[in-house]
Structure formats: C-alpha cells, structure tokens
Design a protein that fits this description.
Shape: globular
CATH topology of the largest domain: Neuraminidase
Strand content: over 45%
Radius of gyration: 20 Å
Structural class: mainly beta
Distance between the termini: 38 Å
Amino acid sequence: MPSFVSTLWLLDVVDGSRRAVYISPVAIERPSVSPDGKRVAYATGALEWDVLEISLPDGAVRTVLGGGGISWWPDWAPSGNHFVVSTNRSGIPAIEDVSSTDGFSRRLASLPTDVGMVGNPRWAPDGSRFAFYSASGGAAPALMISNASGGGEVTIDREMQGTHAWSPDGQWIAYVNKAGKLAKIKPVSGASAVILAKAEPALEVRRVMQWSPAGDWILYSVADGLSLISPDGNTGRKLTSRKFLAYGFSRDGTEVFGVFHNTAGAGAQWQLYSLNVKTGAEKLLAPVDLPASANDMAGFSLHPEGKRFLTSIAKWPYDIWMLEGFDQHKTWLDRLLRR
C-alpha cells in the first residue's frame, strides 16, 4: 500500500454522488476546471509535514520529527514525557506514540489494508485513552477512541468533520459533526450527540478545536477568525478576527496563544500572539522562524508545564500540472458550471 494517496473527486451537485477521476501518489491541491470542461489544472508536489516545538513566549523553534513524509497533529500526553502523532513514517498511515527523550515510538493504530488515513490523535486528560479519526475508501471520517496501548477501539460517531477536543474532566468530546454543526458527545459507544446550535464553525479540517483547561469555553475556528462557545451552548462570542493557523489555551485558560501567517509584507512572516480570553486584547509576543517552504500548520498541544507547545507545518514545493481528457465527465461538469 502506498504511504500517501491523493484523489481528485468529481461531485454531482444534483444527487450528491461522487466519482474518483484521478489518483496520485503525491498531493493534489487547488484544482481548477477549464471553462470548456476538458481540462483541470492543479498544484502538486512532494507532501511533507514536520512536527515542531515552539517555546513561549519567545517563539524559538525546534524540529521534533522531520526528514520527509507526513507527521502531523501531535499531542502531548498528560505526563509530558511522550506524545502521539499521525504519521506515515513506517510506510502506512498510522498513529504512533513517541518518547520525547529518546525518540522511541510504538504504533497505536493504523490502516494496513485499505487506502485511508488515521489522524488527529488527542489524549484524554487522564492519559488512559485517546480519540482520533479514521477514514478509508473515500468515506467520511469516523470519530474513534482507543485505549492507551492501542487496543479496544470504539466508534463514537461514524461521520464527522474537522477536529475534536476533550473536556478537561474527560466526560465529553467536542467535534464538528457530518452536518457541519459543533457538537459534544459522551466518549462511549451508542452515545447521542448534543448540538451546540449557537456555534457556526468553519469547515477547515486543519484548524484545531480546544476546550479550555478551566472548563468554561470551547475555542473553534469560524470563517473570519476564532470564536468561543460555553459547553452548555448558551453563551458564545467572537474572540478575534485574526486568522490563526495554530492556536490553543494557556495552562490556566486565561489566554490563547496563536501563530499568525503575516502576508502584509511588513514585519515577520510568522508571528506568535497571545490573546486575553476575557477582553480579546492581542499582544504580539515574538516572530517565529519557520522554514521558507512552510505554508500551513495543523495542531496545537501545550506541554503540561505550559512553556512550549507542539504543532506541525506543511512544506509543499508545488508544481502546476494539467489533467487532459476531462470531458468524459462533462455531464457532471455542465451541471457544476451552470450553477
């Protein structure tokens, strides 16, 4: 099985059915259909995600896992001695538990027989289990739970979108469901989700969701920034209009730290901010010295000591390609182009 497969899908806007029209062993990004419906231009390149550790408040960067392949969505264990990460370092998509001292790792979950991904592992607050998503065969991701040794997997919700977060007491998991609604659910098989109807999350799969260590807020991405919703769903407010790529709460829940990609041309390209949860006041802490090839981030996990966090960065050296002969799918494309 290949370590990574990217698929270009064609979706029927009338009945919702879909068809795989091109499969590539490297990333397919930003596809654009020509006006005549016969060609598709897309960006492609060797996909690499590296795990980094960023210090607070100075923004110093250290590479934890790198050197090729995909290693993303890292999450510190409550002990602070090891972390889980979604990776294909072993040749198949897997979740690994990695020691922070000697780099020793063990596989906790994988998909050895089907094209798919397992990702976004998040430790429960007591470290006895972790939640993650599992997707294969083009199906929507399922929200899963496994014990700390990688066994006893349980499906919590068979269709989800985006990311998820544990409540600090371990009694709930917040996530975006298949309808694009922010929900919370008990981490047991057969549980029913509670919809937090006042929240309007953006469907951005690489943005994180965070539950405050104080238990009073859930932080999530919206179309124009970050918002907060109370766990009972009754109170919500906008925190910032700044679009952070990686973000999460401080250890006491009074602040949010975030990494901002500055494209204005003035100042550092990557910037570390703090935000006051109560007032929304922003403070620029430091520049973050990321590689020139970095163009996206996924994950935020604060170390238990509160002075550093893990995240992952995408490094994509893109080329532009053209897919010819696309007119065999012109019936569906005509429907799409008429809308």
